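Run: sequence + flavin-adenine dinucleotide -> complex structure.
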Amino acid sequence: MTKKFAVIVVGGGIVGATAACALAQAGIDVALLDARNPARTWPADPIDIRVSALTHASQNILRAVGAWDAMEQRGIGPYDHMHVWDADSAGVLHFDAADTEFSELGHIVENRVTVASLWDQLESLPSATILCPATVADLQINNDNAQIVLSDGTILAADLVIAADGRDSALRQMAGIQTTGWEYKQDGLVATISSENSHQFTAWQRFLPEGPLALLPLKDGHCSIVWTLSHDIAQDYLKLSDADFLQTLEHASEGILGKMLTVGPRGAFPLRFQYAQQYSADHFVLIGDAAHAMHPLAGQGANAGLLDAAAIAELIIKAGQAGRPIGSHKTLRQYERWRKGDNLAMMSSMDVINKMYTTDNEAFRQLRGTGMSWVNHSAWVKNYFNRYAMGLRDDLPDMACGI
Ligand SMILES: Cc1cc2nc3c(=O)[nH]c(=O)nc-3n(C[C@H](O)[C@H](O)[C@H](O)COP(=O)(O)OP(=O)(O)OC[C@H]3O[C@@H](n4cnc5c(N)ncnc54)[C@H](O)[C@@H]3O)c2cc1C
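>> structure
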């Protein structure tokens, strides 16, 4: 027998779980399925190596879907300054929350905190069904609905299937949607460290010839590092002893936090630039990394995905209220027009910045140093960049504006 839902969301990471919460909260009959059950509790001490810098827009969305309070209780790390400097020029940029109407620029949050809080919230919503563990074996798009066949033979049908199954999205492939992109041949090396000096609630980022090194302040005084390195060097650094790794890190960060004291487990993630050529088909839509994967140098991937989730939820809820079919091409094209341009602009700027800072052209290096200093001294331009990085820009979904 076929189980029917208004919407099926495949993938319960940060982005898919947010979309499911937003829809279920509006009384829409939604099923969330994921291949894996996320962690809901964990030992007090070790911090997850996967963290995200979340913008104010993301905070508004996560608050609107009812997850933010639980995230605060589990622990989030506010930061009120951002300091960016260039290893190869005199370029420096400094952002201060005091120049904005907010008390902080954003929050550093462990990904597991966000996901667990969203899943807890989803379980409390009567119009939500969680199917987990569940693996999709087949997707069929028909004239009047989309059908999913699970690997245990269960058949599900919905007016709309939302694929939020990450950058290697199986659903995207099943829907026959092609991607454009390339491997950066760089890895993002991540770890949690402690240092002699306080992080001062500042997100530090030093641009090195290999790629940027970010030291992100965590709630308990540790920092999470995201260090972009060529693939081979990242793999070598994974093998270093803790003492050698800490010494290399101290040198790379110019001793900005004093002596590096401890490091936890290390991991490295290959980085890719990738976008789906279409975001939608009839009764089918892509959100989050399934639609776009970008360089993490400005920490915007999850933030962009949360805007996708809020946008598609807003359009579906409005279509439902107006009595229009929620899986119609018209509604889904509206979503695609809304989000694709914004995402492409964001990922292209990350790409350009990455290329600008990994070039060995001397004239270019001097130019970027002068550019950084010019931005730093121009209040208007700096404010523009600051607000963009905080997720405060035009044409945001209502939820992202706190409406
Ligand atoms: C080193 C690094 C640092 C980053 N830092 C930041 C940052 O500071 N700020 C920021 O905004 N972003 C950051 N990002 C990007 C961010 O991590 C991603 O954009 C975000 O996690 C994507 O979320 P998602 O829900 O779209 O996909 P995922 O997190 O990949 O979730 C996909 C979900 O789908 C499930 N799934 C997969 N396949 C199937 C299937 N076939 N059937 C059922 N379920 C399936 C998975 O189990 C998973 O739960 C960073 C990325 C990297 C690599």
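>> summary
The chain has one domain: 2-181+272-401. The longest strand covers residues 179-195.
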